[in-house]
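Q: Structure tokens for this one, please.
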Amino acid sequence: MADKEILSNPAPLGLMGFGMTTVLLNLHNAGLYALGSMILSMGIFYGGLAQIFAGLLEYRKGNTFGTTAFCSYGLFWLSFVGLVTLPGILGVNPPDSSAVAAYLFMWGLFTFLMFFSTLKKNVALEIVFLSLTILFWLLALGEVTGIESITRIAGIEGIFCGFSAIYLAIAEVTNETYGREVLPIGSK
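A: Here is the predicted structure, written as tokens:
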């Protein structure tokens, strides 16, 4: 009988790509700096491509949740970069605030529905998905109302969301490295 192939856990890569890119974008949303090539590059390469790679590796492991989450959010980042850059590149009309609000609302709805599957995972992942749902819906509300303070509050909440994903990524790497739970994730 052949030995079972041992595969590494791709989730920390996807979580780190998501977390770091989310923190950097939300530092912008909180008003600390302008949207620029640093955020857009992170959106393409680490938030986008690294998460898609992680999702495809989750597929290889037979993890439907991980495949759906990482591929979807990787493609979110690529679509976000497209929303920002395509008007300048292709000369197409940029989306108005109601279109951006619909975009953000739908991503919030997707995240909220995915949240229910996290209830069978671990508490740290629940926190990532719940805080991401809140982030998307706060950003959508900020777009609909045009109230800048809502977007700034969303930025602060988004920084928390991003760091929660970074924590989970590092916890998974550390716990696997030490063969025990060094950093708690609320395993079920």
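A few notes: The CA atoms of residues 9 and 33 lie 34 Å apart. The helical segments are 11-29, 37-61, 64-90, 97-118, 123-145, 148-178.
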